[in-house]
Amino acid sequence: MARQDDDFKRVISHAKEYGYVFQSSEIYDGLSAVYDYAQNGAELKKNIREYWWKAMVQLNENIVGIDAAIFMHPTTWKASGHVDAFNDPLIDNKDSKKRYRADVLVEDHVAKIESKIEKEVAKAAKRFGDTFDESQFLATNQRVVDYQEQATAILKRLGKSLADEDLADVKKLIEELDIACPMSGSKNWTEVKQFNLMFGTKLGATAESAMDLYLRPETAQGIFVNFLNVQKTGRMKIPFGIAQTGKAFRNEIVARQFIFRMREFEQMEMQYFIKPGTQQEWYETWKKTRMKWHLSLGLGKENYRFHDHEKLAHYADAASDIEFRFPFGFKELEGIHSRTDFDLGSHEKYSGKKLQYFDHETRESYVPYVVETSIGLDRMFLAVFSNSLQEEELENGSTRTVLKLPAVLAPTKAAIFPLVKKDGLPEIAQEIIEDLKWDFNVDYDEKDAVGRRYRRQDAAGTPFCITVDHQTLEDKTVTIRHRDSMEQQRVAISEVKAIIHKEVDMKSWLMKMG
Question: Which of 16, 157, 377, 387 could form a disulfide with 266 if both were Cys (CB 3.0 to 4.6 A apart)?
Answer without folding.
Answer: 377
